[in-house]
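Box 3.1 — From sequence to structure: Allophanate hydrolase subunit 1
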Amino acid sequence: MTGRVRLLPSGPGALLVEVPSAADVIALREALAASAPEGVVELVPAARTLLVVVDPASLPVETAANWVRRVAESPDDARAAAAAGSDGPAVVVEVDYRGDDLADTADLLGLSPEALVGRHVATEWRVAFIGFAPGFAYLMADDWPFDVPRLDVARTRVPAGAVGLAAGFSGAYPRESPGGWRLVGRTDATLWDPRADPPALLAPGRTVRFRAVGP
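Predicted structure (token representation):
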């Protein structure tokens, strides 16, 4: 970890772990997943926190807290676990890069639209966490250098499948909703299907690659 972690009780069977950054969340989640003892039910990442859910009958919360602290205090192990790979093979998402904001976003970043698309496609993304809406994955990458400002005024309707950029994240809207991300393209991939198992195409820890399709 790049800084200290803070553990907070979250009911009789969970701990909320606060860390300095989203990158630290990814590293800690991978390290905990790689060394999880019996009794760990779920690891739920967010932007700056990780919820560790346990079965207290087989793993007391106090024991889980000691395990989390031990792993968090081993930064080399956490980095190695995060770099070892994702939870399964990369998910390839095909995108038609004719988003409404592509040209303006490229101009803000000092790039041509073609160069921005090239960087987006060449980047190996990781699902940091799920939020905002069911199946909406916040994607991060170590080699993505751009801090993209959100729109000054959010759209009231963003179509399902819209692929956008905001801050250091990329993501795709699983359904029509309001949104303030800058839209660079659109995908026909089914990102959320409550009848599927699992219902979300993109889950925390997965690697994601974008592939340009269409004109």
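Summary of the box: The first strand starts at residue 6 and ends at 9.
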